[in-house]
Design a protein that fits this description.
The complex is a heterodimer.
Chain A: H1 3-23, E1 26-34, E2 43-51, E3 57-59, E4 61-64, E5 67-78, E6 81-87, E7 90-92, E8 97-100, E9 106-112, E10 121-127, E11 147-155
Parallel strand pairs in A: 1-11
Antiparallel strand pairs in A: 1-2, 2-8, 2-9, 3-7, 4-10, 5-6, 5-9, 10-11
Chain B: H1 2-25, E1 43-45, E2 50-51, E3 60-66, H2 73-87, H3 90-93, E4 96-102, H4 110-118, E5 125-128, H5 131-140, E6 145-147, E7 160-162, E8 166-169, E9 175-179, H6 185-195
Parallel strand pairs in B: 3-4, 4-5
Antiparallel strand pairs in B: 1-2, 1-5, 3-8, 6-7, 8-9
The chains are: A mainly beta, B alpha+beta.
Chain lengths: ~160, ~200
């Protein structure tokens, strides 16, 4: 490795440390995933994201190790019809929290792989930075230096 | 003085008790028959057998319209509805059936429904049909649903916006009451018992 390449790596490492420190202000609590039939392709995760910092944080992406795709959705009711609307960003106020729960904001998990069973632990992550580009078909979503993760228990509500 | 206070307290207690007893003995008003919802339909069940209004006769039904790729409200409502059904005594359970109607026939085939619904309880009846049959039945029950556009490249991940009522049907298959998906379980149980 050349000196320049080594220096660049060191800079990236330092940047990541600072990024992680900033993002570590978000904490995931009370995370659980809805148990669904073994042939399901989707489920939802519910949790509270608490912002322990003095600055507002914005969740720009979510992921799970059990789903090929994950998004945050909210329910909107119009004319007697409920619609799930994808939320590109969710703001967690300074010193505040956002609660993801059934019937409200929730984390959608598409294309479960594998379909988790009741009692399983599933990794869920929130990230203040959206991935630069979607992974190739069939490829898992990559880990991110700015994400905060927690284990969620799969259970019946 | 203390004796007087004691007497007044006793009189009020007796009065309150008499009011409570009167409320207990008051007959529960009969659930009205909703004549605007329901009617003829032709579907297939999870065993690919034809299923029509005649198959709703003889038992009460708890009917819910949804789709199996729904990650939140549909499985939550199905689980809660089956949960209420399981709270009934065994003789009462035998007189009540849970019916899940899919408005996503493209993905919810009979075989798929059978495996999916068994997770909640193997006795849950799953109905599907052609797009026209599903639309016709949904119209009869005042169900609104609309397939939403999926994101490019993820066409199989399409979702629906939809109404989310649970229908309580009597032994003649007539709609007696609609419940929102976040229904009160005790209220539903009481209404079921009133029809048994």
């Amino acid at each position: 490795m050349t000196f320049v390449a080594c220096f660049k790596r060191a800079l990236v490492a330092v940047a990541l440390i600072f990024a992680q420190q900033a993002y570590a202000e978000l904490v995931i609590e009370d995370a659980w995933v809805r148990a669904v039939p073994p042939n399901s392709r989707t489920t939802a995760a519910y949790f509270t994201v608490r912002n322990t910092g003095a600055e507002e944080q914005t969740i720009a992406a979510v992921r799970s190790d059990s789903a090929r795709e994950a998004e945050i959705h909210d329910w909107v009711e119009t004319a007697g019809r409920k619609t799930m609307v994808r939320q590109d960003q969710v703001v967690v106020p300074a010193g505040g929290q956002v609660v993801l729960q059934s019937g409200g904001l929730h984390m959608m998990m598409f294309r479960l792989d594998p379909v988790p069973s009741p009692g399983d632990k599933v990794l869920i992550c929130v990230d203040t930075e959206a991935p630069a580009e979607a992974p190739a078909e069939g490829e898992p979503v990559a880990e991110s230096a700015t994400e905060v993760c927690a284990e969620a228990t799969v259970r019946n509500p | 003085m203390n004796v007087a206070v004691g007497r007044i307290t006793a009189i009020f207690t007796l009065f309150a008790l008499s009011l409570m007893l009167a409320a207990c003995s008051e007959p529960r008003p009969e659930l009205p028959i909703n004549t605007r919802l329901g009617g003829d339909f032709s579907m297939v069940d999870q065993d690919s057998k034809p299923f029509g209004p005649a198959d709703l006769q003889g038992k009460l039904s708890l009917m819910f319209f949804g789709f199996t790729q729904c990650p939140d409200i549909c499985p939550a409502t199905l689980a809660r509805t089956v949960g209420v059904w399981k709270e009934l005594t065994e003789p009462h359970r035998e007189q009540v059936q849970v019916v899940f109607v899919s408005f996503d026939p493209q993905r919810d085939t009979p075989a798929y429904l059978k495996e999916y619904l068994a997770f909640f309880d193997p006795t849950v009846i799953g109905l599907t049909g052609s797009a026209e049959q599903v639309a016709s039945m949904a119209r009869s029950y005042g169900v609104v649903y609309l397939q939403e556009d999926a994101q490019p490249g993820r066409e199989q991940d399409y979702l629906f916006s939809h109404s989310d009522f649970v229908y309580l049907l009597d032994r003649q298959g007539r709609v007696r009451k609609l419940f929102k998906s976040d229904f009160d379980g005790e209220e539903l149980i009481n209404d079921i018992r009133s029809l048994l």
